[in-house]
Amino acid sequence: MAQPTVLVKNLKKYFSAKGGPVKAVDGVNLEVYPGEIFGFLGPNGAGKTTTLRMLTTLIPPDSGEAIVAGFDVRKSQDEVRRHIGYVSQLGGSDRPATGTENLILQGQLYGMSAAEAKARAKELIKLLDLSEFADRIVYTFSGGQRRRLDVALGLMNRPKVLFLDEPTTGLDPQNRTNLWDQIKKLKNQGATIFMTTHYLEEADVLSDRLAIIDYGKIVAEGTPETLKKEMAFDCITLGIADHEKNAPKLIEFFKKEKFIREVTGDDGHLRLCVQDGPTAMPQILRLLDNQKIQMLTISMSRPTLDDVFLKKTGHSLRDTEANVGGQG
Amino acid sequence: MKLFTDIGLLFIRKMKETLRNPIFIIISLITPILYLALFSPLLKKLSGSPAFGNGNVLDIFVPGLLVITAFLQGLFVGYVMIDEVKNGVLERLRVTPTSRFALLAGRVLRDLVNTTVIVIFFVLIALPFGFHLHFYGFLVLLVLIWLLLITTSSFGNALGVILGDEDRLSPIVQGINLPILLLSGMLLPMELAPKWLQVVAHFNPVYYVVEAGRLLTAGHIWEPKVGYAFLFMVPLTILVLAWATRAFNREIS
User: How large is the ipTM?
Assistant: First the structure.
């Protein structure tokens, strides 16, 4: 495998707070390889943004090692800065200026000449479909337009890796999908992207590989597919006649079957979880038929990243989202 | 050199902002006119009193107003800074290989230009009202005014970065603003004050600049009080600049 673009070893950052230090990032290890989108999934407050801020030289790590684009974030801040792009959750574009002015200034701050910066700005305006509004003042942009400009700013210096911090937070569904398309387009052009998100679907749709972080520690890592396959089962939900009476008997019965990993019957339905749903479904139907119990409904659900998260952390990502305030 | 290029680029960025939205400059220009039209007539009868001497009261009043203009131009820049912090502009710039000093200096330089324009405009308005100005003395005063502006603008910007929130900035800025103004002898000379107040005023750097300003516009350049003003302002400016540069490099959580 190629040299990783981002290599993180045992990275730590504690913040002091009332009642003892908060272990914001507590021994994170990860690698991001050229040309991939690496998703960093976790609830708010899990340590995603803190990790990202260390990798982008905004805050120094307490301990551990982070090599980004070939340079140590602690020793060679300027070199790291030269070779990365960063799009913060807050955006970053300067609102009293036009889109094009923003881009050109960004290029010049990376040491480009005015002509080079103009040419590069033109490329990005085309790539991210900004041409309709690029010469307007950013104040007049919609949320989605502004976010695309923010991404373009992060790409001005042709970074070896682009860091996106919660790129679609605050966007409406249409703009979110649009930005996803733009991010996929960047990947197809060979960009390496490190993206934090607390949206399961976003991590699932975009990431080639992802790591799940909770309370400052990485709890799982892999491609979305393998993670879901390894960690979670397909679940078949059955509605049966006279549930109250039949369910206990059926649960006992299904528990004896080896291919069924989990059986529950709490909420008026039987839930049977299996490794491979599509092949298990006919078997279950046959077994049920032998029991002479009438089946009313049947459905199957594939595992989601939330199931993976639940399995690994003991809580659901959706629950934590509502409960935990503040930034990650 | 990259440092100067960066300062220039960031200065132009802010300057464009001013030119696009000149309302703030216009307001800044109106303020001294209001003082001149609505306050200075109150002073007319004080001419001949010990603190004002026999000249035009404007000769005492205008230099103080010039100094205060510079003071206020710098002090309140924190609000704009906070807006940029909240919109991620500062964070984005900090991830580029731009020197932290340039991030600050570009902004301060714009304030310096704005203030210079306002000060000169104000002097030009005051002259027909009978204000006397010694040209070389005024140039020396301009240097003092620049030092003061660099200090307050750096301070205001750094506060904005550190606090990151208008609600936390307001009490500090307002808390500093009034005592410094009152203790500077800008509206009425400190000679009118009781002894204790005069003693307190000596701890206020702006007081020295105001005092020096009155001497300088009258053409008294080689006065000890002018020396004191520089003696206070030069180290203060360097200190605040260094502190503010550090603020631009600190962790923002």
Answer: 0.91
